[in-house]
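Summary for the steering committee. One of the milestones for this cycle was to obtain a three-dimensional model of the protein with alpha-D-galactopyranose bound, which we needed before selecting residues for the alanine scan. The sequence and ligand used are listed below.
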Amino acid sequence: MKLSVKSKFIELYNSEPLIIHAPGRINLIGEHTDYNNGYVMPAAIHMGVQFAFATSHHTHSLIYSLKYDQFYTLDLNAPDKVENPAWANYFLGIVHQLNAKGLRLENFNCVFDGDLPTGAGLSSSAAMECGFIFGLNEMFQLGLTQFDMIHMAQWAEHNYAGVKCGIMDQFSSMMGKDNHAFMLDCRSLEYEYLPLDLGNYTLLLCDTNVKHSLASSEYNTRRNECQQGVTIISKKFPEVKTLRDVTPVMLTACQQDMPPVIYNRCRFVVEENNRVVEASRDLKKGDLASFGKKMFAAHDGLSKLYEVSCAELDYLVQLATASADILGARMIGGGFGGCTLNLIHQNSVGTFLESARAAYRTKFGIEMSSYIVKPGKGVSVVID
Ligand code: GLA
């Protein structure tokens, strides 16, 4: 694919481009905690989005999507949101931010393509935003730090894609490291790389190939529900600014003051934050069995308390629970479709996939896809 964006670029523009790779991410544990200032444990993955860039002397910039065989003409002076093509909005949001910071861009040509399935919970949108801003930063020597770019990419997602996401996806795409996950404190943005020594185990994604339409509206609803919880809890405990500050004892003390749904949302977040901290200890000790149990527990909470799972995801996790060779499994990302992440013995991948695919097809009439993922590095220039 690296070659295909490059060769397409040369075919279209007849010049040698700068090549950028921007990865997607998985999340081992810590879901829906990032926008509550909590902990997450993601990793960038080897799959991602590739870009080819070069400056141009035209009066506009031209972006070509190899996947959709579609051009978009971008006016650097008017990066307003568009209806079509939807993918252009990630780039327009970035250009808007760069203009707002008074950074000077020149026109450019760009070709991009990716091997990340979209809507699978693997953050293809963060990869688009991060790869694009990284490429412009390199090309025009804008002097942006990785943290600047992470925040600007998140801004684009909030304001041009309409999802009030946390910081995890953009952070992972930018800061990933080969063979490592990392634990990120979303309050301080302190992070620690954790070597992923999985021995005979491997990370397998099972893609439901469904994306229920309520995904982004329900995502924003969950944020509001968490905020409602904070408002109630902070009446009794004024030191509480976000759900990160809430202990199980505080939450119990406030249970009677809040509607059951709000209580469940808060309970999930408080428990999930604790799980991430404990899971990082498991990983450091090499206790994969204990780590895997936390993945199952996280899924249970996401499904029953936070209610962001769906029948397809629950079913795939149920199949994983029944397999002795899978230590843990859970949905990843925002939810309502996308992938489950399975910590599976490498010798069992083939057998599990064969039976899971057949069972999933019988139950839902849908084909399941799968990917073995390897933790990879963050956005970078590709040198061949
Ligand atoms: C999406 C968001 C992230 C995070 C996850 C849930 O991927 O973009 O910020 O909130 O959902 O953990």
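Key point for the committee: The first helix runs from residue 2 to 13.
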